[in-house]
Write a structure and sequence with these properties.
The chain is of the alpha/beta class. The chain folds into 2 domains: about 170 residues, Peptidoglycan recognition protein-like (Lysozyme-like); about 35 residues, no CATH class. The strands form 2 sheets. It has a 6-stranded mixed sheet. A hairpin with a 2-residue loop joins strand 6 and strand 7. The protein starts with a strand and ends with a helix. This is N-acetylmuramoyl-L-alanine amidase. InterPro entries: Amidase/PGRP_sf, Amidase_domain.
Length: about 210
Amino acid sequence: MKIISHDFPENQYYKEATKKKGIVLHHTVSGDSVSGDIEWWKSTAERVATPIIIARDGGIHQIYSSQYWAHHLGIKQEHFQKFNLPALNTQRNKEFIGVELDSWGGLTVKNDRFYSASGQEIKKENVVYYEKGFRGYKYFEKYTTAQLDSLCELLEYWGDRYAIPLDYKGDVMFEYNKRALGGESGIWAHVSFRPDKSDVHPQKELIEMLKSLA
């Protein structure tokens, strides 16, 4: 893998090596600007970040080492209470590695044109449609082939380095569920932990890549 390293302030994450049991897939809800994502994280005091952002060209941008941690899940007490589980947001952030795919995520449509939450127009060929909708949206910006190829390499690397099982969870991965909140090891999505998120969406190519890992 070709890694692009960034100088990220140590006070914006926790330089504490923790045992890893899983990986959580996110998307940024932003355009193709890794530097913009990083600057946003730097502007907050809550130490919100992930060790890796994958740009739309497939570039793997390392923000800090995956052995360390920062807040990336934001699970609220009521999310755990729904399943009668103890509220362990900090623990889940420590033991699950987050990875971000640069993407605008959910889109709105007007006059057959597609727009991000910030009003950025997205080309039609870069849009995926879900007939039944997903987390409040019917249209999403697609993850690129280059992104998914890089993500595949990264997942295989982390799976080997941290002994994380890479088997595909099935449809439950794209549902808010007890297994993820309870800390089951493996690959999950942000939507697995929270009902109010829409990352990542169940793009066919993403699912095919995840199934190929087993």
